[in-house]
Design brief:
There is one protein chain. 45% of the residues lie in helices and 17% in strands. It is α/β, with parallel strands linked by helices. A five-stranded parallel β-sheet has the order 2-7-1-8-9, sandwiched between helices.
């Protein structure tokens, strides 16, 4: 790669936010997206909720006590944090800053509260909301998981109503009617956002960068 090509290729890492109501199929979509883009990082949140069967500390979440969570929060170690379904969740800030600086994309699986805070802190972050195909299908999926009690399902449905109303604050939305179709749309968003001029450091610093790289005249 020539020096000129490297200059053009220098890109800030993108922060991609994916939010969805419980049961919309977000976990499956994320897993498949990371297979398409293995270089993309997945932000691992901290939480005070109990670990569920099959979950791995450091892969699914960092499971910590309320005391440690409070210390990290006091030290401004979270880019955002919130109380969700009675537990505390927080997105560590250092992986986001490091990814942006090193030109590596990172994906955040967070709720609407967190997405709003991340967008305020990182204005170029890309927010995407995943919708279920219908309300009836969402109810069916939650009941069929067998991991939640009836009261928890009712609470998740109430939260889903509030979350869906927040869709107007997002940059994109997807409807998960069929996982392959939703994945193709999500992939297209990632590819398009990677080509934004605003993400390329050289092109933001100097308007003449393209002219220099391609040997164009100043008025070309």
């Amino acid at each position: 790669m020539t020096r000129s090509s490297r200059t053009l290729a220098e890109r800030e890492g993108g922060i991609f936010i994916l939010s969805a109501p419980s049961g919309a199929g977000k976990t499956t979509l994320i897993s498949r997206l990371l297979k398409i883009f293995p270089e993309m990082l997945l932000s691992v949140s901290y939480t005070t909720r109990p670990r569920r069967p099959g979950e791995v500390h450091g892969r699914d979440y960092f499971f910590v006590g309320k005391e440690k969570f409070a210390v990290m929060r006091a030290r401004r170690g979270f880019a955002e944090w919130a109380r969700v379904h009675g537990a505390l969740y927080g997105t560590p800030r250092s992986p986001l800053d490091r990814s942006v600086r090193r030109g590596r994309d990172i994906l955040l699986d967070i709720d609407v509260q967190g997405a709003r805070k991340i967008k305020k802190l990182y204005p170029r972050a890309v927010s995407i909301f995943l919708l279920p195909p219908s309300w009836q299908e969402l109810e069916k999926r939650l009941a069929g998981r067998g991991t939640d009690r009836r009261e928890n399902i009712r609470r998740r449905l109430e939260n889903a109503r509030r979350e869906i109303r927040a869709i107007v604050r997002y940059d994109y939305f997807l409807v998960n009617r069929q996982i392959g179709e939703a994945l193709a749309s999500l992939k297209s968003i990632v590819v398009a956002e990677r080509q934004r001029i605003s993400r390329y450091k050289a092109l933001r610093r100097q308007r003449s960068a393209l002219s220099r790289i391609y040997g164009l005249k100043a008025d070309g």
